[in-house]
Design brief:
Layout (H helix, E strand, L loop, with lengths): L6 H4 L5 E3 L6 E5 L2 E5 L5 E2 L3 E3 L15 H7 L1 H10 L24 E5 L1 H17 L4 E5 H4 L11 E6 L5 H12 L3 E6 L5 H5 L2 E2 L14 H20 L5 H12 L1 H9 L2 H11 L4 E6 L3 H16 L2 E6 L16 E5 L6 H13 L3 E7 H7 L5 E5 L7 H20 L17
Helix pairs in contact: 3-8, 3-10, 4-8, 4-12, 8-9, 10-15, 11-15, 12-15
């Protein structure tokens, strides 16, 4: 008999799992287990056959799980998109939602950590392409604020494990406030999935590394599909525009594969970053949450202090940090905000900052001379650029951590599933 906080942890040991409910406790012996409820009465919790398999959990030819999982992203993104997009018509199909996307007054997105950054990107997408009002909340702060939630609204909870206790507590608060509940999770048998009205599953497969990689990009793939469906339902996207976005999404796995070809270039760049004490990541628009994610990844696994900021906010404080010792990484896809980002690159370069530029060929032609180093990204539709530009910041953090000799897959003080507040 085994006890775990996540079905994935038990996958190498058993496929037969019983989920305990709040207040339950269990007496475990070598021949069995008896579960009791909060009133100390015997409780018969159903035993399920989980779809997770220990056979899926291995490093293959990779040194670390994180490196393997970064390289699995083209397949994971493709598998996820195939479950939502019709390959013949490029129409997006979602599970039956508990609200009408055409009339829902507001979507409240709640998550923690990397999943919270996925929610921030979704806010840019849903407001721009679906004209749907979105609020994005940090789960650990959400219910303590006693937020006002609209009648007829929907709350969307994002969690890799589906067991994050802050997110689960926020879900219960939102339900008590009359919100319909949707969940984006990688484990459809998890607590959050079981308590949601509808589940929008990712298909990342098991993710062992504590620092989320393929779970994050598949969350973005699901949220992008939700955006297209909402845009069509609300009349913000006509069939042609929706089809264009869907085609761009279906090209993302190929672009992800192309980015993985930059692995050696990013390894070289990591040599310089590994010597830094502080690193700044800057971006505009949907690239801003990617900057936040890049900074978080570097902090998590290399233990280098890093901050992500909106590039336009640099003049309101962070610019004081810029000197020769601080690498400044710009996430700069060729989108509507590129010209403004270019101005920020010039400001940093004029102050002697160490500009590192992530941009496509067009962007590097304009700004490459101002950068100490650059990484040339494949040209991508602005809609999918946040997915594509996430992968190199993951790889950069990975290689920096390897150089510094940290425990990449199990960084200090962190856990894969955060099950205590």
């Amino acid at each position: 008999m085994y006890v775990g906080s996540d079905a994935l942890a038990l996958a190498p040991l058993t496929r037969r799992i019983a989920y305990m409910e709040d207040g339950d406790w269990a007496a475990i012996t070598r021949i069995g287990a008896q579960i009791y409820d909060r009133e100390d009465r015997p409780a018969n919790r159903p035993v399920r056959e989980t779809a997770l398999s220990g056979a899926l959990i291995g490093k293959g030819n990779h040194r670390h799980f994180m490196h393997k999982e970064i390289h699995e992203q083209p397949v994971a993104i493709g598998d996820t998109l195939r479950s939502y997009i019709n390959p013949a018509t490029h129409a997006v199909g979602l599970p039956d939602l508990p609200v009408d996307l055409a009339t829902v007054p507001r979507l409240t997105v709640v998550a923690c950590g990397t999943s919270y950054y996925a929610g921030l990107i979704a806010k840019y997408w849903l407001e721009k392409f679906a004209r749907l009002a979105v609020e994005v909340e940090i789960a650990s702060e959400f219910r303590y604020r006693d937020p006002v939630l609209p009648a007829g609204g929907m709350a969307l909870f994002i969690s890799q494990s589906g067991e994050t206790i802050d997110t689960l507590a926020a879900l219960r608060y939102a339900r008590a406030q009359g919100q319909k509940i949707a969940a984006v999770v990688n484990n459809p048998e998890s607590s959050i999935a079981r308590e949601a009205d509808v589940v929008l599953p990712t298909h990342a497969g098991p993710e062992i590394g504590v620092a989320s990689t393929k779970a994050f990009t598949t969350q973005l793939a699901v949220l992008a599909c939700l955006t297209i469906a909402a845009g069509r339902a609300r009349g913000a996207l006509d069939a042609r525009a929706a089809g264009e976005l869907a085609v761009a999404l279906t090209e993302t796995p190929a672009l992800a594969s192309e980015v993985l070809g930059l692995d050696e270039r990013l390894r070289e760049l990591a040599q310089d970053i590994a010597e830094a004490r502080d690193v700044l990541y800057l971006g505009r628009g949907a690239a801003y949450p990617v900057a936040l994610e890049g900074a978080l990844k570097l902090k998590e696994i290399s233990y280098i202090h890093a901050e992500g900021h909106p590039a336009g906010e640099m003049k309101h404080g962070p610019i004081a940090l810029i000197d020769e010792a601080v690498p400044v990484i710009f996430v700069a896809p060729s989108d509507a905000a590129f010209d403004k980002t270019a101005s920020n690159v010039q400001e940093v370069a004029a102050r002697g900052g160490r500009v590192i530029l992530f941009a496509d060929g067009k962007g590097i032609a304009r700004l490459g001379r101002l950068a100490r180093a650059h990484v040339e990204m494949p040209a991508a539709h602005p809609f999918v650029a946040p997915i594509v530009y996430t992968i190199p910041v993951q790889l950069l953090a990975y290689h920096v951590a390897v150089i510094k000799g940290t425990d990449v897959d199990q960084p200090r003080n962190l856990a894969k599933s955060v099950t205590v507040e």
